[in-house]
Amino acid sequence: MTTTSAPPARSGARVRVQRFGTFLSGMIMPNIAAFIAWGFITAFFIPTGWTPNEQLVQLVDPMILYLLPLLIANTGGRMVYGVRGGVVATIGTMGVIVGTSIPMFIGAMLMGPLAAWLMKQVDKIWAGKIRAGFEMLVDNFSAGILGFLLALGGFFGIAPVVTVLSDALGAGARFLTETGLLPLASLVIEPGKVLFLNNAINQGVLTPLGIQQAAQDGKSILFLLEANPGPGLGLLLAFALFGVGIARASAPGAIIIHFLGGIHEIYFPYVLMKPILIVAMIAGGATGITTNLIFGSGLRAPASPGSIFAVLLQTASDSYVGVVLSVVLSATVSFLVASLILRASRKKDLAALEAGTDKFGSSVAQNAENKGGESKVASLLGTDTATAVRIDTIVFACDAGMGSSAMGATILRKKFADAGLADVTVTNVSIANLDETADLVITHQDLTARATEAAPQAQHISVENFMSSPKYDEVVALVKSQRV
Description:
The chain is mainly α. It has three domains: about 15-130 and about 135-180, no CATH class; about 185-375, no CATH class; about 385-480, 3-Layer(aba) Sandwich (Rossmann fold), CATH 3.40.50.2300. It is built from 20 helices and four strands. A four-stranded parallel β-sheet has the order 2-1-3-4, sandwiched between helices. Strand 3, helix 19 and strand 4 (about 460-465) form a beta-alpha-beta unit. The model is unreliable at about 1-10 and about 365-385 (pLDDT under 50).
């Protein structure tokens, strides 16, 4: 099997953290709709909501205490061991939930995968040894007994431990908030986002703690630490005005995708091409957090994706001024800092551009070189070999499977349509959900190593930017050549 565009070597620790974040995201993201629904219910029906209702407000507690953790546990169980794993995960998590009085999201994220893994190991014990006709009996009772034991273990073991852990994390968050140190979180969050560690930070820490805060106070500032679109907006505005080359030309489109669509990954390449710009992101992020601290503002539920629309829809009724100001001020600060950096290096960047070494457009420059016959993509995709595997199914993959990869898939579908190629399937999924059906997998270069592990049978292409990679044209040309 041919593999295209071999990814550069990545830190093992970084890949493991990314993988862990992806797994957490895989449990949370499919259930974001339930979080949004819960957010709307609280927004409308709690005593301080838009339309208080004594009957419908009774939905709030059961949803956050039972529905949301059980959905997460079931999804985590299914990821490990299919439907059977999901069922046992749900049973075990029920014990964790009943064993405490706080929303048990961290417990669900622990018990869900653990229960499914144990079910998988138990099934292996008598796999192939059951007498014909007794399979259903053994399967049902083994799952039932294991679920029973896990529910007890969750009640007496995991619930107390996770309660202590949640209390400690919550106390840490309160300490940072009350002492005004929370803006320092930007020192970790902003670099983490650019390194694609945002899922581990957001889904593993901020969302569970935020949900607990929102259940107690009706809102949480923690939902805004990673989701605030202001810093990215300021960065992209700076590139639109003071950038050079492809970065400047693509920035206006990236603004729409980032600020309105909520796809934050779109601005990561702009930071990576000039790493000092992380200072602008940290300054912008810290400004947004400080503003929300001053105004005591927060969101009712996670804003996912981090679009300004999602942020405003989840904003608590008493927080609109603070949240809007946090977005505006964080964008302003990141814009000013990024502009200074870009202006300071403009001559150097223009000279580099004239010399054909525009970092952001490196793939474009590589494409120009590829026209001379040195394209890795062309050779690895097999345009010069009769043994190339026919490409019928192309899959874009990213961490969540519904953000930047969706945008890339849309662009490539349009290119196929323009080329008159109607028999190629182009979809987008999370890396965790890659399977053997993909002929070609397209990922961001930082994620290709994991995608290759998940779908080793497929050809793989790495891109720097899902929105503007010239490698798409090469893929279209290859597919077209295979159908002549």
